[in-house]
Design goal:
Elements: E1 29-32, H1 34-47, H2 54-67, H3 69-72, E2 78-79, E3 82-86, E4 92-99, E5 102-110, H4 115-124
Parallel strand pairs: 1-5
Antiparallel strand pairs: 2-3, 3-4, 4-5
Helix pairs in contact: 1-2
Length: 125
């Protein structure tokens, strides 16, 4: 889009329902619930036998994605009642909710599973 002065400008659309925060404050605390820890162990158990060290790489990657929620929590779309953050390296989704100044991670599920399985699993949490 061009303005009257000939300078190109862009409209910026806000994603999600997050509020502006003071950048000097620690944003949020991330809490990984037991159900999500079990899912991470299942993922590790799946990848480690395929190639030694791949399970550890899986955990490192997913924990990095979970840590990014301290900054990016709230910008992800809702799915099945939870906000869903997709992992960068593995086909997994992190399901979380923001409660006060905490991000509570409820599940870390393989996105290749049937949608009905994912919906059932999230309802049981």
């Amino acid at each position: 889009m061009q303005s009257q002065s000939g300078i190109r400008t862009r409209k910026i659309y806000r994603l999600g329902n997050c509020q502006r925060r003071d950048p000097t404050k620690r944003l949020v605390k991330v809490v990984i619930l037991d159900s999500a820890k079990e899912h991470l162990i299942e993922g590790f158990s799946f990848y480690e036998p395929q190639n030694p060290g791949l399970g550890s790489y899986f955990l490192d990657s997913l924990f990095a994605d979970i840590d990014s929620l301290t900054i990016y929590a709230g910008i992800h779309p809702f799915s099945n009642g939870y906000q869903r953050c997709l992992s960068r390296r593995f086909p997994f989704a992190i399901y979380y909710l923001i409660q006060g100044d905490e991000v509570r991670v409820y599940a870390v599920l393989d996105s290749r599973r049937k949608p009905s399985f994912i919906k059932r699993t999230l309802k049981r949490i």
